[in-house]
Model the fold of this input.
Amino acid sequence: MLKSYYSLTSGCSLLVCGSIADVVGSRLVYLVGCFALSLFVLGSGLSQTSTQLIVCRGGQGIAVSMCLPTAMSLLTLYLPVGKRRNIGFAFVGAGQPLGFSLGLFLGGFFVDSVGWRYAWYMSAALAMAVLVAGFFGLPKHAADGVRNGRVQKITKEIDWIGAIIASACFGMLSYVLA
Done:
């Protein structure tokens, strides 16, 4: 059931986070998502009750939904059309199932050896390393830079009612299927 909260919050917030990234820029949303993911993963390791763990898993889902669409956007923004971009997409496509499989293996290893909390701590450190690498490694791009009136654009350019209705529908469907 714990996995369901992560998947549910991630799936329900993808549209909203992608829309915000379109308005304020993918780099900023990606970095905020990495930071939030680091905090929520660390919070999962430090949680003392099941409610705290559930809240942290839900927060991880929202943070990941900030990272997923923006990572693909950053690939298309920074890599030129052609072989380099194709290789970038191939690495993303191969990295997701490999990371999932490695995570299952390492999670089982940590649970059976030093304890499940250390898996969260190691994941938080890795997420923080990705944040630092992204902060210093992702250059600001003219199409993804600082824009004037971000708050005003967020309130006016995003169809909040449509996004909330679509997210609620996806959430209800996912909840029923889970």
User: Anything to note?
Assistant: DSSP finds seven helices and no strands in the chain. The domain at 2-177 is CATH 1.20.1250.20 (Growth Hormone; Chain: A;). The mean pLDDT is 86. Helices lie at 2-24, 26-46, 50-78, 83-112, 116-137, 150-157, 160-177.
